[in-house]
């Protein structure tokens, strides 16, 4: 993977930030994740950027880029025994990366929040643009939400740059492998649906039962 190169100029006129921070983030994520996760993460940046333009959301491209690149690193094997949601592991990795490079705290907070909330629908869209656009990019690439909001030519250009062969099944499998070792972390979130589909022994947490069976007498 280390020999792979990418152009700064992207589809629809979206440019990958030409900075040392962005370059180091690219190298780190490209070299420590699968092509599946890397390509998906880059598409999230491009789709998020294009959606930001379409929705007139002014944002910091560098923060959006780092957040998009790191948002799924927590699915990796080294996090399987963390006991935490993969979103938090991903967010913490991004925070360590940014802190080591003396990025201002407000920027670190935005990136951490964008990653931590990217699978929590109905909340990020009301937050800072970087937070909103990471989720928008994820939802566009994974779920197809707002599919026709972007021009077909721009969409095709993103996929040409970062292809998605058998992406649906491969990404679902990556989700299942990433959270399967810590199924308790799926309580109350969308990854419970993934384990329910792939693991015949998975027992979904029940919010109502949890309340009724709590130690409170009433």
UniProtKB/TrEMBL annotation:
Residues 33-162 form the HD/PDEase domain. InterPro entries: HD/PDEase_dom (IPR003607), HD_domain (IPR006674). Transmembrane segments: none annotated. CDD domains: HDc. This is HD domain-containing protein. SMART domains: HDc (SM00471). SUPFAM superfamilies: HD-domain/PDEase-like. It holds the Pfam family HD. Coiled coil: none annotated.
């Amino acid at each position: 993977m280390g020999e792979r190169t990418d152009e700064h100029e992207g589809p629809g006129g979206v440019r990958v930030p030409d900075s040392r921070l962005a370059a180091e983030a690219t190298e780190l994520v490209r070299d420590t994740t699968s092509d599946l996760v890397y390509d998906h993460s880059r598409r999230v940046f491009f789709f998020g950027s294009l959606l930001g333009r379409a929705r007139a959301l002014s944002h910091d491209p560098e923060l959006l880029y780092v957040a998009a690149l790191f948002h799924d690193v927590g699915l990796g094997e080294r996090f399987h025994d963390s006991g935490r949601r993969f979103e938090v592991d991903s967010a913490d990795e991004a925070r360590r990366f940014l802190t080591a490079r003396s990025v201002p705290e407000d920027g670190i907070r935005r990136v951490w929040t964008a990653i931590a909330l990217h699978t929590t629908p109905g909340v990020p869209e009301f937050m800072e643009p970087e937070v909103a656009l990471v989720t928008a990019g994820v939802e566009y690439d994974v779920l197809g939400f707002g599919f026709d909001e972007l021009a077909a030519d721009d969409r095709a250009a993103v996929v040409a740059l970062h292809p998605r062969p058998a992406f649906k099944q491969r990404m679902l499998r990556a989700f299942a492998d990433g959270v399967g070792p810590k199924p308790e972390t799926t309580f109350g979130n969308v990854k419970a649906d993934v384990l329910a589909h792939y693991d015949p022994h998975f027992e979904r947490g029940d919010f109502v039962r949890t309340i009724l069976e709590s130690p409170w007498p009433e």
